[in-house]
Specification:
globular; 19% strand; 2 domains; alpha/beta; two-stranded antiparallel ribbon; 17 strands; Glucose Oxidase, domain 1; 324 residues
């Protein structure tokens, strides 16, 4: 079964159902699995990734977490609110209770877990009431959180070989793809060939579109939820067949927006998370890494990107670090 061609975009219900069946990993790692495609990232793959460190140059792939972030309130998502609990001014006013001149500062942050650079956990998306591995979503994610596939289970595992596919630089104009550009498997393959790199089993694949670079230049606008370049629904078979461990992009939603089906919302999510079991990263800052890769021609690196082990969470902020 191949991914749907353009004609199938007239039948979203059928295309989603057929692709869900052809790309299903349900039962692949047993009925109790909580890791999905992270099962592909084994010890050997981690050793392979660690061996890629040659120069020791490191790159944070995270946007900053502050009130100037991209969120505009969709689904009650807000930017982080950072509040100081104790400050140097408090010390100067004599409000610190510690002896012998000791002072200090403390702070707290309040934010949705998916307001900036983040991972989508396996409990984040359902398909017709089914969560990852065919479980009843109503029994998996409740008001108590994700009782089965909480993102805490992934915390020890997300470190290995990273691969950058800078589609914006290879396919786009001036290093950027326009909003609404659907990235196909052919685009991804052509980019890999241009970079002299291969994305395969157990890799953490990063796809740069250039949208974040454009947003930095022009302002946030509709970055959070609006039109964007991204993966076409037709890449579902590629995501499944490549056997990658995870995939992250520099966009808000990973897939092309507007979505290719009429009256649809994030149909590739509907396949990738509950059926493939794929760990998806969004709003990653890939620009500095991409510049370095273009300069030295090396598009593979050691990558560590552990989610915070927040019990029962369906997503997590992350500060991914690539080391070359």
């Amino acid at each position: 079964m191949t991914s749907p061609d353009r004609a199938d975009f007239t039948d979203p219900v059928g295309a989603i159902a057929r692709t869900a069946t052809s790309c299903s990993n349900w039962g692949r790692w047993g009925a109790d699995d909580v890791l999905g495609t992270l099962n592909f990232l084994d010890e050997a793959k981690r050793r392979e990734g660690a061996a890629l460190v040659r120069r020791g140059a490191s790159f944070s792939l995270s946007q900053r977490f502050d009130t100037h972030g991209p969120q505009r309130g969709w689904r009650r998502r807000s930017n982080p609110v950072h509040t100081m609990l104790d400050t140097g001014a408090d010390f100067a006013l004599g409000n610190h209770p510690f002896p012998h001149g000791l002072g200090g500062a403390d702070d707290v942050i309040s934010m949705p877990l998916q307001c900036s650079t983040q991972w989508d956990g396996l409990g984040h998306i359902f398909d017709h009431g089914k969560a990852w591995n065919g479980r009843d979503a109503a029994r998996v994610v409740t008001s108590e959180g994700d009782l089965v596939t909480g993102i805490e289970h992934m915390a020890p595992h997300v470190a290995g070989r990273g691969v950058l596919l800078d589609v914006g630089r290879v396919i786009g104009d001036d290093g950027e793809l326009p909003d609404g550009f659907a990235i196909t498997e052919e685009h991804l393959t052509a980019t890999a060939v241009a970079h002299g790199v291969r994305a395969g089993r157990g890799d953490i694949v990063l796809v740069r579109t250039g949208q974040l670079a454009r947003t930095r230049r022009d302002g946030w606008g509709d970055y959070a939820g609006g039109p964007a370049p991204g993966l076409s629904f037709t890449t579902a078979d590629w995501l499944h067949g490549t056997e990658m461990a995870a995939l992250a992009t520099d966009t808000w939603g990973f897939e092309v927006r507007p979505n290719e089906f009429e009256h649809a919302f994030q149909p590739l999510h509907q396949i990738a998370i509950p059926h493939i079991g794929l760990l998806i990263g969004e709003m990653w800052d890939l620009d500095a890494l991409a510049d370095d890769c273009a300069a030295d021609g090396v598009y593979e690196f050691w990558l560590t990107a552990a989610p915070l082990p927040i019990t029962g969470a369906v997503g997590s902020p992350v500060n991914p670090v690539a080391v070359k």
